[in-house]
Amino acid sequence: MPICPSALLKGSSTEYLKSRQGCKTCKIRKVKCGEEKPYCTRCTSTGRKCEYEGTISMVDNPFSLSQNIVWRERRSFAYYIQQTAPSVGGGLDVTFWSTIIPQLCRNEPAMWDAIITIGALFESPEPCPDRISIRRGNSRTFNQDHRDALFWYSRSVSAIRQQIERGRLDMLVGLISCLLFICIESIQGGVEEASQLYGQGVHLILAFRAQIAAKIVPSANASLLEDVIVPIFLRLGSIAVPLSALQVGSLLGEIKHTLAPEFNSLKSARDGIVLIAAEIHGFEGECIEYLREPDTSDKLLTLTRQQSTLSARLKTWHSAFVNLVDSLRRRRDLSPQQIGIGALLFASHEALLIILRICLSSTETDADAYIPNFQNIVEQSEIALDATARPDGTQPPYTVELSVGFPLWFTCLRCREPRIRRTALALLRRAPRVLGFYKTRSVFTFGEQVMALEERYGMAMNSIQARASSAVLKSPHPPSRYQQGSQGTGSEVSKFDLSTLVTAPDDANIASIYSMPAGFENSISTSMLIPEEARIGPIKIFRPKDGLPQGTTEKDIAKWKPSHDQLFLRLTWNERDLFTDTWRRVHKYIPTTL
After folding, report:
1. CA separation for the pair 96, 86 (Å, rounded)
2. How far apart are CA 261 and CA 553, in angstroms?
3. Which residues face 570 on adjacent strands?
4. Cα dihedral angle (321, 326, 329, 334), rounded to 10 degrees?
5. Which one-letter DSSP state was computed for residue 539?
6. pTM higher than 0.90, yes or no?
7. Prior bond to 127 cis, omega within 30?
8. Mean pLDDT value across residues 74-103
9. Exposed/middle/buried for residue 250 (C-beta within 10 Å: 0-12, 13-18, 19+)
10. What is the spatial distance between Cα 185 and Cα 44, in angstroms, rounded to a whole number?
11. How far apart are CA 153 and CA 521, in angstroms?
12. Which residue has the higher pLDDT, 292 or 475?
């Protein structure tokens, strides 16, 4: 049982400090105060600030100070139980985060320190300690919650390291601690650290599976691994694609890929679409590399067959999901939270459907055929965000759960209908501040910049083409082939200025980004608003230390003088040669902090 601060103080030299008149907060609220010191139970249990009149500072008494530290630990634990656990894993894994982990931490100080760290960071997410400040040891800029979190996290890591050195680390404890450390690093913006921990977690899972195969692990632990922990790592991996794509593949190797014809719960439906998503993301990567340098081999036939197989699996999932939702509705067994989860799964399905339909297409304008699907994504994402909003309208600061982040970001990049695109960006701003490994602000800032870049280039092209067409109509002689080329989208239109994607946009430009393009009317198609040449295609994220993408050389990124762990974006678009009337794919590289 948790120890009450008042119980710790009984019999101590500080007992004479106790006031029989109650704290200020309870007086204002006109409720009975328990008069516990230094903070009453009624205030601490509800997260309220507790103050007493004429209380002597605990700094004057070292023992009281130590008890204050104990109280802060227990307060962070209480916040974790009441606020963090129900939201960090979404509404489908509450038992794992609210019951299993707290039970394990009773006998594992390292896990205790990890969860109170997460509790403290959840309670004070802004401004969160960033990795640069931590490395510089500049802890004076942090508030008390952040200083506590850094101390507890360091203590937890040290305890795990000592157990490893002594050969006494329990596999399950190590794996769950690794997951908690991923959460802590991600909240702090440590993408590199979180991805390294993710890789270590995957290795632990594979080692755990080997122990299960040797029948030296209790069946309960085996079930916990495959039913809860592995799906969490799969969801984290799908968010982190392509950083963890290969590691996700190693997890899939042990999982049956056959989908059940029906689902008995939203959890089974979620787990099913996560598996399909992992496969589709991997398949999309293969298609991107194929389109970069298409050949006449049997590769296209193989990819087409794989596309058909995945499409059939996604269709099976959708049919089972619709039947489940219909069944729950008939029984009136859908809570607001479940409605939000259903909306999230539907939005995820729509994004995966579009990916499968266009991943083998060499033209970006093919995505315009799926405007209704993009509209579904933003509508369902809004429902999902409303369901997870806290009483004050904000979202929890962090989640490892499947979220609206990917469907909305995909919509921001691939949907060129301006109203839907802007709605997706606005909804992405409402999402939790950290999704998986990434800070949402970095994601939607990049989406804003891509939208502004495409629309600016598209409008410039349309303006020059309009002037060229007007000149042709006024001239008694048709232009030569050379003149046609020079009057089209030639040198008057500058190519993409990718420097705008490297630096953050000015705040003054945000309003203009969200305003509708000048002269836009409902009757104008997206292909006219943003022509093929003005569209940025598939984006590849990579780190040179992990290996360069196919066709990429050291020369392509040398000018940026990258560090060993620098993240890069490879951007692709189609460029038309007006003289030969042919198209070629252009690839450019820029560093990123996504």
Report:
1. 10
2. 46
3. 540, 589
4. 0
5. E
6. no
7. yes
8. 92
9. middle
10. 27
11. 54
12. 292
